[in-house]
Each structure stands twice: as structure tokens, then as C-alpha cells.
Amino acid sequence: MNNSGPRYKRSQLEKRLNTDVLWCVALLIVMCLTASVGHGLWLNNFKDAGFQVDGETSPALAGFYVFWTMIIVLQVLIPISLYVSIEIVKLGQIYFIHNDLDFYNEQQDSRIQCRALNITEDLGQIQFLFSDKTGTLTENKMVFCRCSIYGVEYPHVENARRLQVYEAEQNEAAGRTVTLKSACSGKSLSCRSLSCNHSSVSLHTLTAESLEEDQLSGHAAVRTGAFCSRMAKDVVPDPELVRKLSCLSSSALHLKGSSSASLSGLELTYITDFFLALAICNSVVVSSPSQPRHMVPEARAPLKSLEEMKLMFQRLSFYSFSPLQIKGSPRSFTSKLFTRGKTSSFTFNTPPNNSTDGSDPALECSQDTCKLKTKVDLPDRGDREDSAAMSSGEDLESLMEIKADGVKQNLEGMGGDEESEEDIDDELLYEAESPDEAALVHAARAYHCTLRGRSAESLLVDLPGIGSLVVQLLHILPFDSNRKRMSVVVRHPVTGQVVVYTKGADSVIMDLAETQKGSEQAQEIYSHIREQTQKHLDTYAREGLRTLCIAKKVLEEEEYEVWLKRQLLAESSIENQEELLLDSAQRLETDLTLLGCTGIVDRLQEDVPETIEALQEAGVKVWILTGDKQETAINIANACKLLRSSDRLLSANCGSRDACGALLEELLSEVQHEEEREESSLDSTSSFILVIDGRTLEWALQEELKGSFLELSCKCKAVICCRSTPLQKSKVVQLIRDKIGVMTLAVGDGANDVSMIQVADVGIGISGQEGMQAVMSSDFAISRFKHLKKLLLVHGHWCYHRLANMILYFIYKNVMYVNLLFWYQFFCGYSGSVMINAWVLILFNLVFTSVPPLIYGILDQDTPADTLMKLPELYGASRTTKVYIPFMFWINMLDAFYQSLVCFFLPYFALAGSDAGTLSFGSPINTSALFIILLHQVIESNTLTWIHMLVLVLSAALYFGFVQLYSAFCVACSHPTNLFGVETLQITQPLFYIICTLTTVAALLPRILFRALFNSLHSSAPLRSAQRDEVAAERYRQRMKLWNLKHSGASSPQVHADNPGLEPIEDEVVS
Amino acid sequence: MMASSYKDEDGHISVSGSGAAAGGGSLRTKKPENTAFKQQRLPAWQPILTAGTVLPAFFIIGLIFIPIGIGLYVTSNNIKEFEIDYTGVDMSSPCFNCSKSFSWNSTKPCTCSIPFHLDQSYESNVFMYYGLSNFYQNHRRYVKSRDDSQLNGNEKSLEEPSKECEPYAKHDNKPIAPCGAIANSMFNDTLELFYNDPNGTKIQIPLTATGIAWWTDKHVKFRNPGVENMNLTAVFQGTTKPVNWHRPVYELDTDPDNNGFINEDFIVWMRTAALPTFRKLYRIIQRRNNMLPTLPRGNYTLEVVYNYPVRSFEGRKRMILSTISWMGGKNPFLGIAYITVGSVCFLLGVVLLIIHHKYGNRNNGADISH
């Protein structure tokens, strides 16, 4: 739908080239006119001359003829072959980009895909980079991290630690020297918990994903479905929540007697509903290798009778809390609940929000529990957990047996449950549309709320303590970006009611779940829950988690019937079906009851901050256009160093157009004030970051406000657009591209980035988790965000320089060569005569001097790759001091004119008045032209490899070979310019060499002089600093070598292995 | 310091090694090959042209060019050359009458003799040239107007000349041999040299008419039609002479090896000159006696059979006597040019040296200080 096919993209350079080609055409016409007028006048002077073939033609007509003759003779001036050469050079450049080892991703076994072949040089001119967030900056590997149900936060400390451990493992794998035997070993744990507070962990970047993970899960990658990374699958449940959930089974067991369970009964229904919603409110397809998809496995007999459960649910739903319990803070509330329920000595009582401390015995114990849990969950993956963990798990079991009778019972009950199900459990594969869904389903599964199968009408779900249930699926209202939510309508398996479960963006759900019908008390409880949840949502967003809200709604049968009718009507309608469906969905999704929210972590890709930093240093403005909420976006911006502490945040959120206009004006004046102030105080440290949300953006993009929005955003270092729709993304890109007229690059991974990718000058798709839409519409498809750095800084820079230089050289070459023929016209009566063999003329451009520019355009490196990577400023510098500007074009033209003058007139004066024939005169001219053109390229080249040399030598050899053979054997060919005997005689004449040497040297002298003076007097600052850096780096390397030698024996290189990238950087900064 | 840095091929090697090990060799991956070429790490020479690096080159060029220039200049100066214009533009000129009343188709030969004096004696072989000025032998239409295959002895082309020869392909429905404008406008003055002995006798100087054309032209490119040693008159039966010619092609010379298409005067003419002012080799005066100079100092007479009209287009005709050297005829330009370019290079070298001292040191200093 978004994909309107690839836009034909023409590079800036080509546009510039076209104007220059027009200049060439103008030059050609001037030359031809000169010749034709000259011929007319010349003819006037001659009457009945011996050399005149037809004296009857009037001078004017003859002049007219000569004009067209000259067009044919000088047509080489119009570089038609240049266009072909450009294409070939771009292919070559693409070849090298495609083969770059740094763009290879071992996990995906993918290289960069170059889908557009004609815009390589635009990579070197990027000024604005528009990036999607999810999947582009981040991994888009969603891992369930935290959740909040019933206003109670479950921090999943263990889970956070587990993520941490994975990271450590990956680091370790990257380091490859240290093996952390046990992930839970005290020392490493404590040092890690120091570095990261609970779940903010997740934002720490990762080094490349380890091979180890590959080996663990990767070899099974063929059969694992999408989004089923090991990280996402193994969610360690929060002990608190497990305990509460276990109450479900216990309460069902002890329904009559246990008051402790019934006290949290409402909460329990919330929790149950919450997990049920997680498990079923999605479009996940379940499959297992042994079973085909869409099959609902046969429901086994529930452990508890359904009747019993139904009874419980009915009881609970009418139950209300005493006010006392509501008022307490969630924490005290839980703890109260906790102490009441179970033995207080038991160590599940972990303070949920405190940072972990490895020495805490309670924590240790809980770790072990978690170990045990994983152990039980995944016995076949136990290879990572060693026997120590196993034994500690056993310890715990014995511990539990002594201390926690109730819980133990439940746990064992569940454990027993698991054991019987394990074999099936592990074979379940979830294939989800989005990674979020997969993460949530996996999370639900960790709490034994397992989605087992799906068919068109029903879902098979396991519930803890209950067993398999068939949930009748009535409707799915799929996700769309307008509603920003999805819903399922099911018949509740236990109560039999029609229930709507909705899952969606928090802003939407929170609005829809505003009020709650019912008694005052219930309302009070509800508003409290809502308040708490909102608080948690804010916390999550601050931590950079993706938040989703889960809500439900119980429908009365009649209500449902009414809705169903309209829904069916909408479904069957042909006209504006979409609108009707939307309308119908919106009618259903009202008055929701908020169950809770989830926080899903999406880790930053590796090296994202470094990449963004480098790009900013390179003068590229990085904008983030995301559909996420503001807090999340800001947080990500923070994490990837787009936002620094010194930066000032300007946020633009407003509801109406007028307000928006006013706000923009206000912000603009503020920025201007600040700028003025800074100018006066001469310290410009802080810069502005504009954060704008989708609604405001909508206003800002309107015609009247465009201007001020543009002005404001240009004054800001970066702009973050959050909550933006795909259309808005593309509009923003279009605005910048058209209004400022700069090169834009858009990078994204999902279908929602397609339009933006297509609009931008360079569209880059990240082949990630979200399918191929973005890749298909992109110009380049990479697998990691960090690849952008080398792609732009090195390849972009090179490609631009190569192509620009090649074009300049090509035009120079043509002008220089063609002018030789033009000068000759002054001595042959402007008759369009040539002094060079026709075939040599044709082949000169086509063969003898065609390959060197191509090689030059493909292989030249004006600056080494590592320097370009080290000094991103070079990118900006090369963009501002463009190679291919009119000035350079005219300098080249001038040089071409000079060279052709020298190349023609030195032989002319040397042979004037002699008995040289036409072709004998042309021979030294042509040969010197060849040498001049080839050596000119040697001067212009920045690097010369053996390939350059080979091609240059071959070109010259080919020329000589051709003319020699041609003049030796072709007696009567190429009629007016028969070369027979000319060249063979020429190479025996010393005069020939004398002329060629003189001409070549004299022609190249100014260029060499200019280059030498330029390089000596105007050594560019970045280059000089590069040289400095090299010296420093060399010194550092030597120091490191020394240090390594000293320490190799004594201490283990643990520190290095832990963070191999960190140490050298720090040191370099110091040096 | 010709900054030539060879980039080494470090890095990645260990990684690729382990990667290959992990990949298991047999498994085909998309991993790009880690070759110097594909990773653009080919050892490269980086010619960074600075004052310091080009300085030696400038000096060397200067030092080589100046001696060459002097050598060329001296060589050129040693060449003896004598030139005389016999067009007859002036009233006083002996050939004035001939030049005045002349058209292509006059049959009566007009002769004139021009006396001249050689200031120095010519020791070695002397080359006798005729020179034409303002004669555009390089005009496009003119250059085209010939039939190489006819000249190569192709009998078919002899009967049916190429269209390129038009309008000089046929005359009176007979094919013209040789056809075309070039042949038609062939230079047909006859020049003879007489040495006026101080004792009053006129000695004709023997002129060699062969050996003036290129060997390849004489033996390969130009051939008479028919089999060897056939009577040329018979061979050219059925063809007609070019309009402006006085004699048919088979009567150009009495020597059968220098007659017809392989007549050397003809061949020389057929090599069209590059520039409107040109000379063409006419005769060679061989040195007969080692004791005597080829052309002693003294008075000479040039006897011209004036056939060739040039005054209609303001042309000039000259006779040139010249000795030649290894570098060809007299031409001081090359020597001067070499000396000039050499000097310029040398001067620039000095300037660059100054610049290098001033700025190059500063750069180096900056490098060292860090």
C-alpha cells in the first residue's frame, strides 16, 4: 500500500553534470560557428585555386555545410561516453561496497545490498539523516522486561539480570578470552549490578552478537520461527507475580476456606485476565516442528473442574476490597499481602525496586529460585547452567520443603504440571507479526499462560493451575496505525462472557479506559490503579522501554449482538469498508477496564552512539522520526548520544494549529535569543534539540507553518519527531529535501518507513526483524545501523570524489583532444579537415583513453579509509569544499585549452614550412595528446596501484600497437586519412620523440606546478590533524605493545576481554 | 620525500581465519572475500605532489632540456638552407611574364631563369625542394579527392574510379588516371640548376629524381596496374589524363621504374601537406666527389619551365636548397623551445625550493612537535 514502486533517483552530481554538458554543447556550437564563418570568409578570398574541388558553391552555403561537418568532427566534445562510463564506474563502486567485509553480518550471513546502482556518490553528500528508531537504532528484538498489573509494579529484577548476563556472555564471546563459568557467580554479578541499575541495563549497547548464541540457538534457527531469539524466549518470571499467580490455583483449591487468597481476589482476576490477554490478544501463529500450523492440539482434561473455576470467577468479580488496602502504596500493599499470605521468613520477599546487591542472601536465594525455574523450564537448554546451579536448585528445593509449605505445594504442583508438558512446551514455536507480540506471548508463557494453538474460531490456552482451555475466538480487530491498538473478542473460557481484550499504545488505551462504571469504591480502586499504572508507564518510558497497555471489556450479550450486526455489515459492505470497520472497532473499544501495562525492552544496536556521534561530527544532522512516544524517543536519543546533557530540549506539543504556530514562533525567538546571547558571550556549548510530537507535526507541516518549522528545525542540532505516522515521516523528509535543497538520507527497517525511504535522496533499509518492505524500497540495505558510518564516511566520500574527479577528468580529456582538431581548422581553411586517422580518432576516446578514467573512478582513494573513519570532519569538509563545482569545471576547461594549445602549436612550429604530410603532422600531436592525457591522470590520482599502472601502460601500448600495425599493413583503408607507412616511419625519426617529449612536458607543467603549490601552501587542516593522529596512534600502539608484554605473564587479560573496545579509546583520548 | 606509503594488509586476517574455521569451509556463506583487492587495500603509491616532491623533477627536466635545446639549436644552425621565390609577382622578377599570362590549359611552355648567389658552399648531399604557400593541400574536399586503390594498381578502379574523385573521376566518359583533385593539381614546373662558373660557362648540375619518395609509398602503396614490365601505354589504354595535365601519366618519365603511378614526383605530390605553406622534395643533388663540395660557393641560375599557376589564389612558389641533419631540415624553433622550457623548469625549481624552505619546514616542524 505504501510501496509505490521505486522512485527514479538522479544524483545531484548528475544534475550538475548535465549543466556542464550543456556548456560543452555551447562550446561545440561556438567552435562550429567559428569554423563555418571562417570557412565562408576564407572561400571568399579564393577564386579558381588549384586545390578547390568545386568552385561553384557559394561561400555562405559552404559555411553552412562546414558547420555540420564540424559538428560531426568535434562531436566527441559532448561526452556521450561519459554517461556510460559513469554507469560503469558506479557499478565498480557498488561492487566494492557490496564486497566490503565491514558490512558483513555474520548472524544473518548477509552483506550490504545495493539496490540502486546510480546514486553512490550521493552517499558522500548527505546533510540530513532521518532515522527510524525501532529496528534501526535498536535491535528490534523485543524482550519482555517489566509489567504492571492492577497498579502493582513487577520489576522482574531477575529478568533484568538475565538480560545483563546475556550481554556479558556476548561480551565475553567477543572477547573470547575470558569464560565466565557461572553467570550468577557472585563477583561478576556484583560488579555488574554496580554498573547498571535494574532495567536501565537494557539500554547498554551490546557488542556484536556472539557466535556462542549462534551456536546455541542459531543452529536451530531454521526451525525457530521469527522473533524467537533465546533472549526473548526465556523470560524469568518475577517471583512476586509467580506467587500471586500461584494463588489462582491455590485459591481455586481452597476456595471455601482461604481468606488470604480471596483478599487479593480482584487482583488475581486482573492478573489472570492480564496474562490471558497477553496470550491471546495477538495474531501469533503457533507451530511446532512435528505439527503443522493452525492446528489446535487436543485439549487435555483440565486439572480443576471448570465448574469450580467458574464459581471462583463469579465470586471474585463481585468482590470488593476494603478501603484500607487500597490506600496503601503498592509496595506496602504487596508486602502486607505477602506477610499475610505466607511464612514471613521466606526469601521471596525481595524489595522489588531496590537495586540488587549480590551479597544479599535473600537475593541469592531468589536467584537460585530463578535458576531452578529456568532449569525446570528448559531442561534441554541446560548446557549453560552448570552443575553448581543445579545443585543450588536442589538445595533450594530442600529449603523450600522445610520453609514454605504452601508455596512449595503450588510450585511443585506447577512443576509437576510442567514436567508433563515439557516435551510439548519446548516444541512450540511462535510466529508473530511483530516482535512485540512474540515477546508478550513468550512472557505469558513464562507464567505458564501458554498459547498452544490457534485456529480460525478458537484458541487453545494453558492457564496455570487450570490447564488447557479452549477459548472461543469471536473476532479479531487487527492492529492499525490510526487506532494504534488491536483487540480480540472472545468468549471467556471460564465465565462464558463475551470479553474484549485490547492491547495498544498507552496514550490511546489510557484515554479509552478513563472511567469505570460501578460503585464508588470500585471507581476509587480503579482510579488508583489507573494512576499507578500511569506512573509506571512514565517510569518505563523514561527507561526507554516500549510500553503497551492491556485492557479488557466485558460485553453484555445484547450489547455484543448489536455490535456484531454492525460489524458484519461493515465487513460485508463494499463501499468504504475500511472506514466502516474502523468505526465499528472504535465503537467496540470504549469503556475499557485497564488491566495493566507492559514494558518491553528493545536494546540499542551496537555502536549506535558512536555512529551517530561520528555522523554529527561529519556535519550530518540526525533526526529521529519514530512512532514511539515522546519519553521513549527522548530516552533513546539520550542513549545514543544524540541528546547530551548540555543540550537544551525544546518540546513542541500542542493541540491546535494556532497554538502550534504561536509555539513555533516562541521557540524560534527563544533560539534566536539564545544564539545572540551566545554570540555575545562567545561560548556556544549548548545546542537545541527539538522534540515534536505527531499531532503538532501535523500542524507544523501545513503550508502556513512550514516556514517557521523549517527555520526552527534548522537551528536545532537534532529533531526528534515522535508519534509520527509514516506519511508524516515522508512529509518531513520531503520538506527538508525540497525546501533546503540538501541531500537527505532516510534509514528505516519497517513498512512504515517505506514512504520516507522512497522520498529521501538516499533510502537505506535495514534488513531486520520487520520483513522486507523497507529493504525492497530502499537504495541500500544494510543489516546494522553502525554500517552507516563506513557507508557514508568512507564509501560515500570515496564515491563522490571518485566520480566527481572522473567526470572532471573526462570532460577535460574530451575538450583537450577535440581542441586539437579545432586548432587545425585555422590551417586548413576551416574545412573540417583532420590530421589524425579517422579510426584513431574514434578509438582514442573509446579504447586508448577509456579504461584509465574508469579505473581512476573506481579505485582512487583520496584519503585512506582509516583516516576517513577516524576523522568524520573530513566528510563535512569535502562536502563544503566540493570537488565538482563550477570553479573546478572551468579550471579544468582552462587547463584543457592550455594543454591543447601547447599540444598543437609546439608541433606546429616545429614542423611549419617543412615537408610534413597531414598525417605525419598529426602523429606527434596525437601521441603527445595520449601521453598528456594519461600522465595528467597520474598527476590527478591520489593512489596508484598496480592496476592503475597496468591500465596506463596497456593503454599506451595499445595505442602504439594499433597505429603501428595499422600503418604497416593497411594499404588502402580509411580513405582520406590513410595511415599507411606514416607511423612506421615516424617512430624511426628522432624528431618525433623530440617533439613528443617537449610537448608533453610543457603541457603538464602548469598542472604539476599548481598541484605542488596547492599541496604545499594549502595543506588542509583535517589532513594535518590526521597526520598528527597517526603519530599519536603509533605511539599508543607501541605503548600498548610494551604494556602487553609486561602484563602477559602476570595478570590475565580479563579486563581487556571484558570490554575490548573501551580501553584503547580512553587511552587515545588521553594521548 | 615522494610520499610513497605502502598500506599493509594487517587486520582482519585473524578474524577471517577463525571465521572460516567456524564456518566449516564447506558451508558457503555470503561473507565477502578478504582479499586486498576486494577490501580496497591494494598496496598503493600515493603521489602527493608538493613543492618538495616535484622540486627534483623540475631541476632534472631543466638540466636535461637545456643541453638538448642547445644541441638542437646548434644542429639547426649548421644546416645550410637557401630559398628563392620564383613566383614572379614583382614586375622586376624574371618570371613576371610567365606568371601574368597563365592559365592551366595553355600549351605553350613559358620559361624563365632566375640567377642567384650562394654565399657558402654546400658540402653534403643537397636536397632541392619546391615550396608552395597559401596552397591548402589539406582542404577537406581536396584531401578526399583521390582513389588509393586505383593508385595501388587495381585495374577495376582504373576503369571505374571511386566516387571520391568526383568531379575529376571521368572526362569525356573516360576514366581519369590518376583521378581526383590532388592528382589533377599536381605541381608541374620543371626546375633546373646551372652553376655559373667564374670562367663564364654554365654547368648543369645533375639532379637525381629518384629516392625522393618514401620507400613504402614507392614500393607498396603506389603500383602501376597490370603485370610487371608491361607497356604502360597499353595498360593505361582507355583512360584519359587529368584535365590539367599536359602529358598522360605514362609519359611522366622515360625511366620505366619511375613512370606511371610510381613516378616519384607524383608520389611526393600525393602525400598531401599538413599546412598551407609547405615544401616538397623535388630533387636530390648527390655529392659526387669527396674532394669537391656538392654546391660550391658562387653564382647559379635556376631555369624554370613555368607551368603551375598560383597567382589566382595569391600563392607563392619557391625553390629551396637545403642540407639536412638527423633532425630534418632547418628549424631553430625546437632548440629555442627546449631551452625555454628547460629554463622555465629550472626557474620554477628555484621558486619551489624557496617555497619548500619556507612552508615545507613549517609543516615538518608541526609534525615533529607533536
From TrEMBL, chain A:
The chain crosses the membrane at residues 21-42, 62-84, 807-826, 838-859, 887-910, 916-935, 947-969, 989-1010. It is found in: Membrane. Its EC number is 7.6.2.1. It catalyses: ATP + H2O + phospholipidSide 1 = ADP + phosphate + phospholipidSide 2. Residues 344-363, 1047-1071 are annotated as: Disordered. Its main location: membrane. Residues 775-1018 form the P-type ATPase C-terminal domain. Pfam families: Cation_ATPase, PhoLip_ATPase_C. It is a multi-pass membrane protein. Signal peptide: none annotated. Residues 344-358 have a biased composition (Polar residues). Keywords: ATP-binding, Magnesium, Membrane, Metal-binding, Nucleotide-binding, Translocase, Transmembrane, Transmembrane helix. Belongs to the cation transport ATPase (P-type) (TC 3.A.3) family. Type IV subfamily. This is Phospholipid-transporting ATPase. It comes from Ameca splendens.
TrEMBL record, chain B:
Its main location: membrane. Belongs to the CDC50/LEM3 family. The keyword Transmembrane helix applies. The chain crosses the membrane at residues 48-74, 333-355. This is Cell cycle control protein. It comes from the Eukaryota. PANTHER family: CELL CYCLE CONTROL PROTEIN 50 (PTHR10926), CELL CYCLE CONTROL PROTEIN 50A (PTHR10926:SF17). InterPro entries: CDC50/LEM3_fam (IPR005045). Residues 1-28, 146-167 are annotated as: Disordered. It is a multi-pass membrane protein. It is found in: Apical cell membrane; Cytoplasmic vesicle, Secretory vesicle membrane; Golgi apparatus; Membrane. It comes from Ameca splendens. Residues 1-12, 156-167 have a biased composition (Basic and acidic residues). Keywords: Cell membrane, Cytoplasmic vesicle, Disulfide bond, Glycoprotein, Golgi apparatus, Lipid transport, Membrane, Transmembrane, Transmembrane helix, Transport. The keyword Transmembrane applies.
